[in-house]
Amino acid sequence: MKVCLLTQFFPPETFAGANRVAAMAAALSEVGELHVVAPEPSYPDAAAYVGMPPPVLPPGATLTRVRPPMRRSGSWAARAAAELGLAVRLARAAVRVRPDVVVTSSPSMFLGPAALAVGRRRRARVVWDVRDLTWEYGKEDDVVTGAAARAAIGLVARVMWWVAARVDIVTCATEGLAVPLRDRLRGRRIEVVPNGIDAALLAALTPSPAPPSDRLRVLYAGLVGHAQQLEVLLEVARRAPQVDITVAGDGPARRRLEEAATGLPNVTFTGYVSPAQLTELYRTSDVLFAQLQRSELHRITAAPSKLQEYMAAGRFIVYAGEGSAAELVERAGAGVVVPPGDTGAIVAALATVTTEERIACGKSARAYAESLPSRVDQMRRLATLTRSLA
């Protein structure tokens, strides 16, 4: 069986999407002849990868690179156009592979149509790993404005649901995300394949007490985007000057947030960091923060993958959000949950937690992370589903 894996991200890129796809590639290589088609590494900046050795591929696998998207910021329309252009380039490269099965993984929603186009052209079966419902989030009031923009996102949504109804298998990472998929795609095959935990990550994040400090050190690590609404951390910094806040990561909202943080000496933006640098940031932090904006769709579907990484770090977590992700933090005893955007509740959580409580929750979080199946083992389930299509 010849399997072609289309992806927006791939190692040496080192964040949630790339990590899931790397494990997916390892598992798929065990059931067929694997051909990966991906853009040149460029997130968040191609300069970060200059001189870096190529990724180590699974035995027998090949990797074809295409030109990466040129825009990472700007308007929603500009970013969508850049992602659409990337999807076209990936599809053209995948057609030349002549696969038996095409597998693709978002977050770029345009990879679903690209995979289906390759499948139709080569009479191949198609598996679409849907990591979020981008086209549905885009309909929310604070994402796009104007009649033309709303009409455009409505058209895109109809196309995406049409594509999802015609691939052979749709997979997703959470039961919450499976709910709207099963509701809209009645009778279609929807399978849940959780992320799992990376054994190497657990080893790298061996928890130990943070170095002593007379200031509370709070870290956010991940995408700096619209849904995270990290403006709340700037208000926290104003109300709690005794707290040091570090925002590690990049994204379309980073520049705007940095400008808004002018004059706040207790807020630091690192930009993109390497895995080794991120490990050090976890080691020297007391509290890990995550937030997802209030949204009915997010409440049902979202479970930020960074929470598992936070738990592996063995640190106290403050999660500003709702739904299954909030339930996870509470079930694991990993920290506290507050309403998204509630500056007062976040400040109160930071002010009232004791050192003993932070340590206890960190140990509980770490124990939960260690109990999870490995990421590659979870992806072997996806590989088994793929093999069943041959």
How would you portray this structure in words?
With 390 residues, the protein is α/β, with parallel strands linked by helices. The protein has 2 domains: 2-196 and 374-389, Glycogen Phosphorylase B (Rossmann fold); 199-371, Rossmann fold. The chain has helices at 16-28, 76-95, 111-122, 134-137, 147-164, 175-184, 199-204, 231-239, 254-260, 275-283, 296-301, 306-313, 323-332, 343-352, 355-371, 375-389; strands spanning 2-7, 33-39, 62-66, 101-105, 125-129, 169-172, 190-192, 216-221, 243-248, 267-271, 287-291, 316-320, 335-338. A 7-stranded parallel sheet has the order 3-2-1-4-5-6-7, with helices on both faces. It is globular. The N and C termini lie close together (7 Å).
